[in-house]
Amino acid sequence: MPILHAILASSSNGPASNLHRLLWLIAAWLLIGAAGMLRPRSLRYIAHLLFPLGALAALGVALTAGGFLVSLPASSPAAGQAAQTLILPLGLPDLPFHLRLDALSGFFLLLLGLAGVGISTFAAGYFRSGTGSAPGLLGLEYHLFLASMALVILADDAYLFMVAWETMALSSYFLVTSQHRIPEIRRAGFLYLLMAHVGAISILLCFGVMQGGSWQFTFQAMRSASLAPFWATVAFLLALAGFGAKAGLVPMHVWLPEAHPAAPSPVSAMMSGLMLKTAIYGVLRVSFDLLHVRFWQWGALTLALGLFSAIFGAIFAAVQTDMKRLLAYSSIENIGLIFTGIGLAILFDASGMPLFAALALTAALVHALNHAFFKSLLFLATGSVLHATRQRMLGKLGGLIRPMPWVAVLTLVGTLAIAGLPPLNGFVSEWLLLQAFLFTPQIPYPFLNMLIPAGAAALALILALAAYVMVKFYGVIFLGQPRESSLSQAHDANWLERLGLGWLALGCILIGVLPRLALWASGAVTDSLLGERVHRGSFPWTIAPIAPQQASYSGLIFLAGILGVVGVTFLMVRLLAHGRVRRTPAWDCGYPWQTSRMQDTAEGFGQPIRHMFGAFFHMERELPSPSDPAPQYHIHIEDRLWRTLYLPIARAVQWLAEKIGVLQGGRLAIYLLYSFLTLLVLLVFVL
Amino acid sequence: MSTISFIWQFGEVALAVAIAPLFSGWIAQCRAWMQNRSAPSLTLPYRELRKLFRKDAALATDASGLFRATPYILFGAMVLAAAIIPSLATDLPFARAADAIALIGLFATARVFLSLAAMDIGTAFGSMGARREMMIGFLAEPALLMVLFNAFLLYRTTALPSLVDGYAAHHQTIDPSVIFAAVAFVMVLLAENGRIPIDNPSTHLELTMIHEAMLLEYSARHLALVEWASSLKLFNYACIGFALFVPWGIATHGAMPGVGGAMVLLIAILSLGVKLGLCGALLALIESLSAKLRLFRAPEYLATAFLVALLGLLVHLLLGANAHG
After folding, report:
1. What is the extent of the structural domain holding B75?
2. Is residue B323 part of a domain?
3. What are the tens digits of pLDDT across the range A6-50?
4. Whether A442 contacts chain B with CB within 8 A
5. In-domain check, residue B187
6. What ipTM describes this predicted complex?
7. Which residues in chain A have Cβ-Cβ distances shorter than 8 Å to B296?
8. What is the pLDDT of residues B268-319, one digit of tens each?
9. Which of A529, A599, B176, B229 sits between 20 and 30 A of A162, alpha carbons compared?
10. Segments making up each domain of chain A, as ranges
11. Cα A218 to chain center, whole Å?
12. Domain count, chain B
């Protein structure tokens, strides 16, 4: 640690040097993307030269952001004000691009860079030539996507923010629709674009409210504007809706399970692991930095939405049969957990308990970081499986641990991490979130302090459901017997893919075993936003957020303890007993005609969930009759919100469009009449 | 953190590993008495373990490394849990590695590994058992968390040693919420350890079994380790219950070497023995008096446990509000 510290600290000298370096790295991404257009059809040039260069730039971003976080003075009141700013001579005449690097943006850039390294390395080995967009075009869109996400995080005025935000939405739209010849993918892309723009309008309006009559659109002006409580609440709600649409908060989640499976796997990984985090960044930026007040009602609303999204995502993930849709719903669940943490932080902050607010915010931030690691890892792994088997449906997979041992082992790390099991990273943030919940009875609002503890039970249910989902995911894909005979020819991932997966798996293990690394990064953020950071315990390998007597956790002791006992037990068994093994066929329960189709299917594994949470689903089921010679079982599960919320809205828009369509008569004389009337009206106004 | 605390630590772990099968044997014996059957010997579990360790392991042809590693991981997780739970003393070096919530996480790790191993061979029973086990798991965890929440409200800590110390500091008043929490905890304990209202440890009836369905493919030393881990899990749950609700006799901070230390040790071991004996008899009684529930009644059973725990929490909050107001 001290050596790492020294290297990182020495690389940050000069007032804005980190920001300068980050800008160069972003420019490098753009350049790499543009260089791909020189030879857009050459897969080797794009994949084996440009994507690894992009991964290097991502590493640079992570190191620079990490160096900046290290250089911040630790736990002093002035820490929050340390920021690097820069004004670029680009943009509108009276509104040049403002850039700012502070603890919050540093944290999210660190996240972007660290996960970006793994994804870009994997992508270098992933893309194959074939149908769809040319590799050069993909490379351009991919690096534009990365660069625009970095700019969203660095932007310090509404204009640059919106430009980068839209670039991000558009570049990812083109990435999603890279297989644009398939109609379902075009439809998924359209839905994504639509939701992205509904969200963007909401964010734009939010900035409009926050400028507070000064008509200055720099974030600095918004910080100093003092809004009336009503307008502050309006701004917060708009931000929640706008960023929530991007993050996939229920009920604005419908695009997520469509768009993520449609995209190529590295793009799904980037969208789920990184892009959703820019929305988290946006919510934090608006609610904790740009707005000067926070009310407990905001926190309660965010908390309720977050918990509901998390339950909703977990339940729907459990009944999915497409592996990427399953992961997409699991993203909704994890985003819900992050919003739960943010809601708690607002609630504690509004109640004047900054230390507990810092604890909840730490949980949210660390979970965002963790999610970037394990969800990217799992999406990339589905890419490897897809390449090896050409199957996305869980019902046609199985037993891949034998032909694909590398992917299976690395995916196991991600699976255990996302299931929230110690000693991996997912557990750390979930533990912190549960710890934060323990203090909710101290909130000084009656009823709220009794209602929210029940939220902790909901959280426990969500975490255990997530474990259920991940056992299903891993068990059906990698364990058991292959459900199709073609699966035994599946090949393992190539070395670049393994490297990318390995990087992300390493991150999952490292944060889990040494959670202080993550707490150190998030501590800078909570310092700057709330003026508090959680205590970290007296030993470098334990974390104790509030006090060591209250609760502490050490991933390292967990790992060492389990491994130590496993080693000792193994040796004892070998020494005192023996290691003889006899291979036999599996026990057939007296029924020798078993086939691999008799294993639990993905539908079968979801059956208890369908049974218990039936109210959430709209189910259409075809059951075969007992005398059917060729029985067919079919089940179709749909989101109730789709029918009750989205289709009515779509119909209303359609109806409105038809009414307005009357104006379009199609005859020149009518259009001339319109022009004339418009002129008349304008004249009335002018005169 | 002195040498003496390390000695306590290793003594405690060794004791837990050694007597966990005895505890299971005791429950089986009590059950047999209550059901008017002739009782198996107390040492039967040990003899079974010895027999299993001697046999050759029969592995299914397609068993992967995960399947073979899981028994060791399960055993490792349960031994680590035994090191964290203060069953004899609270001044343990390992106890700071995890609070009660992290301990639930450790049990969840073991459960997930066992479920994955059960799916590894690809027989219908294995995956059925895995699915059911995970289902019981996600139903039980909210109730268990509410129990811990209640303990936190009483003593402002979720670290088990601090809970025991806190109890020792003001054990003269028993909060009524503790009774609700204790009932909920016993219900969760039965469900999590595959005991009778939810699962039957002595059945191999295909359609009803949960835990045993996952073990069908294990044999010899692997099965021995899994069985040993299961009895350790039951022992650990019992010790968590003792630490939460009846922490009498556990050596609190300041247990020193010398004659006084020996006395404290003797009291701690004796009280643990008495508590285990009573607890085993109680479990056997519950199991003898109740019938196994249908699988889809399990949610109702665990929802009851959850509501009881929540009720305890509300009782505490309301009484606390009255006391303050």
Report:
1. 3-318
2. no
3. 444 444 445 568 888 999 999 999 999 998 888 888 888 888 888
4. no
5. yes
6. 0.92
7. 611
8. 888 899 999 999 999 999 988 888 888 888 889 999 999 999 888 888 888 7
9. A529
10. 2-560, 641-686
11. 27
12. 1
